[in-house]
Specification:
This protein has 97 residues and is mainly α. It has a domain of 66 residues. Helix content is 62%, strand content 0%. The protein contains three helices and no strands. The chain is elongated. The protein starts with a helix and ends in a 15-residue tail after the last helix. Keywords: Membrane, Transmembrane, Transmembrane helix.
């Protein structure tokens, strides 16, 4: 019985090793590094650059739109909160009892 699970474990390792390209050790690692580098430069980097270019184009289009709304007035602070009305300047919101 002990040899049965060892044989199945060996089969699993064999299938996994063959799925990884049949290479072992340093050559396996080197092949994965090469494949990962190629994938990065052929797929990942171009898609990131395309996305960045699209964002830049959208930002330029938004900046050149003459009809866009731009807030030109500072918001008016609440006079009660700032202490201008009724001398609330040094009081806290939740007084300690």
């Amino acid at each position: 019985m002990a040899s049965g699970w060892r044989k199945s474990l060996g089969n699993v390792r064999s299938v996994f090793g063959n799925a990884m390209g049949g290479l072992r050790g340093g050559s396996n690692l080197a092949s994965w590094v090469v494949a990962g580098t190629l994938a990065y430069f052929l797929w990942v980097k171009p898609s990131q650059e395309l996305k960045r270019e699209q964002q830049e184009r959208a930002a330029l289009a938004a900046a050149s739109d003459r009809y866009r709304y731009v807030e030109k007035v500072k918001p008016i602070p609440d006079l009660q909160e700032t202490g201008i009305i009724y001398g609330n300047k040094n009081k806290t919101k939740n007084p300690e009892i």
